[in-house]
Amino acid sequence: MQNVTDSFVSLGHWPSAGSFGFNTDILATNLINLSVVLGVLIFFGKRVLSDLLDNRKQKILNTIRNSEELREGVIEQLEKARARLSKVEMEADQFRVNGYSEIEREKLNLINSTYKTLEQLENYKNETINFEQQRAINKVRQRVFQQALQGALGTLNSCLNNELHLRTISANIGMFGAMKGVTD
Prior knowledge:
90% of the residues lie in helices and 0% in strands. With 184 residues, the chain is mostly helical. The protein has one domain (32-168). The chain is rod-shaped and about 205 Å long.
């Protein structure tokens, strides 16, 4: 191993005889090599790097443009949605107000029809009571008349004998005959 390191160390001390050779001074050669590599990179890489940056810039600009267009579209959709929401809220309020009005109107109609029905029922009740009263009065009259007639017949039968009875019948037949002659 010692021989290998000695050979590298001895490379650094080659005498230059005025001919072409390698400079083995690492610090001096590194600086030159770096400046050559950087010069080549800048010369050739400038165009590549510029193209890469231009492409990236265009992508960013396109992305910004697309984002702006999407933003404008979303804002427009949001405004439309807000307008629709406002319209729907107004319609809902109108339905609510109309619904309350309709409920009140139906309530009043129901109350009025109930009052009319109650009035009709009251009238029917009064008519029924009057009818029943008249019927009861007529029944009482008929009974009173029948009792009075039976009482009169009973009195007549007890007071009349056959001869008086025949004379009364003859007198009544005579009156009917006289009435018949007047009407003819």
